[in-house]
Amino acid sequence: IEKIKALRPDLVICNKEENTQRIVEELEPLAPVWVSDINTLEDSLDMIRKLGVLLSVSERASEIITMITSEADVFAHFMLNRPVRKVAYLIWKKPYMAAGSDSFIHELLKLNKFQNIIVETRYPEVSVSVLKEADLILLSSEPYPFKEKDARELEALTGKEVRLVDGEFFSWYGSRLQAAFSYFRTLH
User: Fold this and answer.
1) Cα separation of 78 and 188, whole Å?
2) What is the pLDDT of residues 64-108, one digit of tens each?
3) Of 94, 109, 116, 87, residue with least CA distance to 171
4) Crossing angle for the helix pair 58-79 and 104-111, nearest 10 degrees?
5) Within 13 Å, how many C-alpha atoms sit on residue 57's CB side?
6) What CA–CA distance (Å, rounded) separates 43 from 37?
């Protein structure tokens, strides 16, 4: 809060998942606070549109939305005849935690025809026995920085294919999505 105060912002952008209500309330006297709540690709596009209006850059926001929408359409065509694979997407180690059913990650997994085996909400702890139900285990580069060593360890424990993935493309909504679909093609 003190670092943000020192910046003397004109606007503070928060996210419901990343920032507590207490933080938002502490920031409100400093500047207007805009809070996003992103769970789907459509939510992300809506956020870009709204921020474009708010920041007087609607034309640039529209260009970004068009690029993301175009890339998503090309990717959907690319995925058309690909099979569905059951996956677990891990975000943390000790304990293992996975992306659950009501997350932005879950939505992007669906676009990749990855059926998330984690039905719990948000980011639950998961056991190795649950991970054995997946065809493929994806290890995110963030927030926990999984490495090849972690992948080999989980392959030995589960007998399943384990791959490292760039977590930014699965969890960072907004303009980063312009490059996400090209990255997703490399996973197939």
Assistant:
1) 10
2) 999 999 999 999 999 999 999 999 999 999 999 999 998 999 999
3) 109
4) 50
5) 10
6) 8
Calpha distance 28→23 (Å, rounded): 9
Contact 87, 117 (CB under 8 A): yes
Percent helix, strand and coil across the chain, each rounded to 5?
45, 15, 35
Q: Give the C-alpha separation, 50 to 44, whole Å.
A: 10
- In three-state secondary structure terms, 39 is coil
How many Å apart are CA 167 and CA 42, to the nearest integer?
Answer: 19
Q: Render 56-108 in DSSP notation, one character per residue.
A: T-HHHHHHHHHHHHHHHHHHHHHHTTPPPEEEEEEEETTTTEE--TTSHHHHH
CA–CA separation, 134 vs 115, rounded Å? 9
Q: How many CB atoms lie within 10 A of CB 130?
A: 17
pLDDT of amino acid 17: 87
Residues of the chain predicted below pLDDT 70: none
- Would you give the distance in Å from CA 6 to the centre of its chain? 30
* Enclosing H/E stretch for 115: strand 114-116
